[in-house]
Amino acid sequence: MFGFVINKLKNRKWLNLCLLMGVALFIALFVCHPMFEKGAGNQILDRLFTDHATQQNEFPAQMSREGTYAVADYPDSQSVLDKLSGYEQKWTEYVDIDKVSAQQLITLSGGRADTEFGGINNYFTIGYLPGLSEYAEVVKSKADTATFECSVSEKTMDHYGLVAGEKIYLHVPDGSGKKEIPFVISQICREKDINDPYWAKTLSDMGDVIFVSQDVFDEMMQYYSEDNISYSDFLMLDYRQINTENASLYDGYMEQFKDADKLYNDNIRDTLDGFFTQQKTIKLMLWALELPCLVLLILFIRMISAQILSLEENDILVLRSRGATKLQVFILYLQQSGIIAFAGCVLGIVLGYIMCRAAASTDGFLRFTAKDIGTYKFVWQMLVYAVAAGVIMVLFITVPVWKKSKDAISERSSRGRISKKKPLWEKCFIDVILLALSAYLLYNYNKQKSTLAISVLENRSIDPVMILDNSLFIFATALLCVRLTGLIILLVDRLFKKHFSPAMYASFLQLKRTRYNQGFLAVFLIMTVAGGIFDANMARTMNSNMEKRIVYNVGCDAIYNEDFRLRIQKNKDGSVNWMYDEPDFGKYESLKNEGICDGVTRVLEDERVDISAGSGSVPDAYLMAINTKEFGETAKLQSDQNDDINDAHWFNYLNELAKEPDGVIISSNLAKALGLKVGDSLNYSRYVPEAVDDDQIYASENAKVCAIVKGFPGYERYTYETDAEGNVTEQEKYLIVANYATVVEKFGMTPYSVWMNLSKGKTVDDIYKNITSAQQLIDENKNSATVQITNGMFTLSFILSLIVCSVGFLLYWVMTLKQRELQFGIYRAMGMRMREVKAMLLNEQIFLSFLPLLAGAGIGIAATAMFVRLISIIYLPQKHNIGVNVYIYPSDMLELAGVLFVAVAVCYVVISRLLKSMKIAQALRLGEDS
To answer: Can you give the pLDDT at residue 769?
Structure first.
């Protein structure tokens, strides 16, 4: 039996190889899912931990416990430290991650103290920090063995005016009164590397602690009559070992730790909560993006398997007539499809791994890079997915055999070879129903755009139907086009039947007889072309809008935020004087002389400005103070796709501001809020630095409105704030732009950022490391998991569409020609010329191929116009000065059209050669034999 199956596969090796290709691609795409999901999940985890470290300025994976122990239970420091180490061991017993570092601090309450050089009634705490000597460096030291030695931090030194060698007289309660214990400051220390994971609490965070050795600490415990000893324990873990496989397990353990121990805490669970939300979104996105491509591959496989089954229909009838049961025939084809599925699994796993790695390496549509994709690795779930996909393919290919194996040869004539039965979907108007459903969903989603955008910003799961609706629209419209094509064929035939040549009459007769059978090819072609166009346009729109928004938000090539030193002086009367020391700006101006920058300018920014005019006022406006000439040479205003954001070029507004030293440019929403127009006056006020006072205005200035703008370099009109419960609210930001010299004169020097316009061919690497540039932000955005998945899947879908469409189209027509070899032989025997046969085939291709291809292009463009802006909410949920614009790259359309043109041309050439090589006598003999 097995040898018989192998011979059957060899007899139609090219068809079976095409079927194997389709099965392998289907399994490969199926297999991609777990690898992509796990890789993207690990990438998200890594980014969340990194962002947490940057934003919170702390190690992102730490467990901690802070509290007190009774001195009666723990009489010395070592017993306390052993207890803390026991907690650490218990934690890591469940959360099996390598320890990076650990910080343990134990303290006694201390008391009031006098210092040798005049300090009176200061409060100090006695502490023991085991890692102090290893992780801190001595700034100053002075030994004195005659008394207890201690160390203090630089902050404590500065705060109390202490010096090395100075004595501290600590008043300690000993039960009978207060005893004075002298300490000498033997060391003043600071962190060797404040970014070392060990410093969960920095020396500055530890307050007014005097650090002593373990022996001294134990001796101090004997002097105190207090009942408790305070402690803090921080365990830092290697967050790189937390991945998609163990994140849920570890999160559960940490929840149990917290439930069992109220003093336990960690900063990992919040990160994991954000990860679980994003992971769910990633899963839904992957299925929503994969499903249309999987459906396309199923159509391809169905087309090939149907062709094979049609060619083997006679073989099935012979087997049934010779006594084979339906079950035996079914098992025979089950083995045949099983062999193909097994080979497809082997190829699919390898191909899926390669496809996933290739998709992960994209940083744009059809743009493959050599970036690090180490998080995308082979996972065991790929084997499970491969087996599941293989079983689906076996059933999908084999089940139609059961219907074909019902009849014997004697019943063949009663069935007929060509189905004239109208399909169920056409009878029930499924196409119209699905199209109406798609339109209804689109209407509802468009009404809920604002709600959907807020939902995305709050990291809630997306609705996958929003992504799939465009595929539903394409499928429904494809079915509708098949219905309309059939009606067009009937209409043309009825109108011009009397004027047809014999060849054209035969052509339309064939079209009418096979229009229900040939509709499958039309649906396949329409979905392929429309899907390819939509994927390309969706990816281009997403990437282009993201890049343009980033360029607009930054406002120039690169920005460097200088460090300003704030000096604060408290006066005897309680008032405070403050002043910023400006760094040397000349080093930036020299960048122009060195040819690194074409423009450099100061931009003073303040987001705590109150503006009033008449009876109205606006708080927390955004002030920009600029030098108009330098700013014009440096800044860039990213325009909208269709037109400039403003009514005139923004240089005109700079010119108006340059004419008025006390003038300002304001945003259109500010003008609307306060009822202002050009020439009106307003007053703006600034607050003292937050380090001095949170809510105190120190100066105000009157100004004249010179210009009103909708957009300005670096000005984002809309901002979003998240409350403690995770709810996001949208707020408008108001802009006021003033002359830099005027602002400094009226308000004094305050921190500014340095904006740069890089020379051609120069990058931020030629300047400083810690610098913000538009290109860096664009690269970071491209490497985010959501964008990477979208670019990768759209790229794969587009490439697979081209391959499947080309192969499927060519194969379908070649096999159709083979099946009609007898018919063409008869036509030729009846005197029909070869060019008439070609004309007949060309006419059929116009209705069955060219019209669906044109329809697919139109449907793809229609889907782009209808759905791209809606789906863009997932990637661009924020409102912006620049609206979402649809981008259609002619190069993508030319690539798709070029491939299809080549496929059609090759198909026509192959058909012509097959017709020329066809032997009339053999064709007629074939008819006699059949």
So the answer is: 57
Question: To the nearest 10°, the Cα dihedral for 410, 411, 414, 418?
Answer: -110
pLDDT tens profile 188-217: 898 888 888 999 888 888 878 889 988 888
Q: Vertex 166, ends 160 and 168: CA angle to 5°?
A: 70
Long-range contacts of 693-699 (CB under 8 A, 24+ apart): 693/576, 697/610, 698/747, 699/746, 699/747, 699/748
Give counts: helices (H), strands (E), the chain: 29, 25
- Amino acid found at 922: Q
C-alpha neighbours within 13 Å on the C-beta side of residue 525: 31
**Alpha-carbon distance values, 699 to 662, 747, 788 (Å):** 15, 6, 48
Mean of the per-residue pLDDT values for the chain? Answer: 84
Separation between Cα atoms, residue 81 and residue 229, nearest integer Å: 11
The CB density around residue 898, as the number of other CB atoms within 10 Å, is: 11
Q: Residue 925 above 60 pLDDT? A: no
* Confidence (pLDDT) at 671: 92
Angle between helices 502-554 and 464-496 (to 10 degrees): 150
d(CA 738, CA 699): 15
What does the pLDDT read at residue 919?
Answer: 60
Task: Please state the rounded mean pLDDT for residues 739-764.
Answer: 88
Inter-residue contact 753 to 561 (CB < 8 Å): yes
Which single residue is written with the structure tokens 């191929």?
849
Q: How far is CA 639 from CA 786, 882, 885, in A?
A: 26, 8, 11
Q: What is the 3-state secondary structure (H, E, C) of 714-728?
A: CCCCEEEEECCCCCE
Q: Helix, strand, coil shares of the chain as percentages rounded to 5?
A: 55, 20, 25
Query: In this predicted model, what pLDDT tens digit does every residue of 804-820 receive, in sequence order?
Result: 877 877 777 777 777 77
- Ramachandran bin of 235, using left for φ above 0, alpha for ψ from -120 to 50, beta for the remaining angles: beta
3-state secondary structure 115-168: ECCCCCCEEEEEEECCCHHHHEEEEEECCCCCCEEEEEEHHHHHHHCCCCCCEE
Picking from 644, 649, 620, 879, the residue whose alpha carbon sits closest to that of residue 735 is 620
Range 852-859 average pLDDT: 90
Quote the longest CA-to-CA distance of the chain. 130
Residue 574 has pLDDT above 70, yes or no: no
Burial, 291: exposed, middle or buried (Cβ in 10 Å; 0-12, 13-18, 19+)?
middle
Instruction: Return d(Cα 21, Cα 305) in angstroms, integer.
Output: 12
Q: In which residue are the tokens 């755009």 written?
A: 449
C-alpha atoms less than 13 angstroms from C-alpha of 555 in its C-beta half-sphere: 24
What residues contact residue 670 under an 8 Å CB cut-off, 6+ apart? 611, 618, 621, 676, 734, 735, 736
Confidence of residue 839 (pLDDT cuts 50, 70, 90): confident
Contacts of 751 (CB under 8 A, 6+ apart): 561, 562, 564, 580, 604
DSSP assignment, residue 501? Answer: -
Rounded CA-CA distance 694/692 in Å is 7
* 478 within 8 A of 523, measured Cβ to Cβ: yes
Q: What percent of the chain has pLDDT above 90?
A: 22
Distance of CA 409 to the CA centre of its chain: 59
Arithmetic mean of pLDDT, 53-75: 87
* Structural Rg of the chain based on CA atoms: 38
325 Cβ contact partners less than 8 Å away, ≥ 6 residues apart = none
